[in-house]
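Supplementary Note 3. Input sequence used for the single-chain structure prediction.
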Amino acid sequence: MNTKTRLLCGVLSLSSLGLLGGCQNTGSKAAAVDTFFTAYNRLCEASSLEAEGTIEFSGLETGFSAAYTSKPQAVAIKATSSGLPLASFYIRDGKTYLDYLGTRSSSVAANLGLTDDNEFHLPNPFLELSRQEREALFDSAKVEGDVYTFTFNPSKINTLLDSYGALSIEQGMLEAEIVDGQMRSVDLDLHGVYDIQSASADFDLEAEIKILAMDENVVVAFPDDLSTWGQEQSNDQ
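The predicted structure, written as discrete structure tokens, is reproduced below.
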């Protein structure tokens, strides 16, 4: 796995934790962490989801929109940079479609471990963590109404990300709005160092994610030309 891929995996994992302040006593912190992960687990198990947001990595900002239904498997993710198309990814009828900076490719969803007899859901990398291990990911928690603010424990987060080998978190904070047990929005703010081959550089990551719909009649929109996806590149060769 090259450095760029490891870095992307680390960022996506942290963003997934986001699709996961003052100190309080241990009991209050435990309750807040419990509420957060219960809402996060519910998000991962949703039969349908629609979200949008922005991710800024060291000054480079990307906007995104995403929607899926678990059965039938249907996924649409679009990313833009400076208002221009950056990448899009779709799953429909057992096939995947990728457009990255105008280069298109397609494959079968089974290559990603997605088969017709499986429902599509968000990945949940925290299922195997105990309640104590989840609580240890945060140094502190603060609750103000429906807003939950957590400060990360860098050592525990870095241990969790160790398999990606590219990111080292020095400090970070997560803020989530949770209403009636349902995640409504997540803001993530991280600072640290990432490796670039034999060198390293500081990074700042800020992500804002808004949940627009969950377990509702989400409409997944696809381009009209999926049947000829990628053929224009083949014809040009």
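The chain has five helices and eleven strands. The chain has a mean pLDDT of 85.
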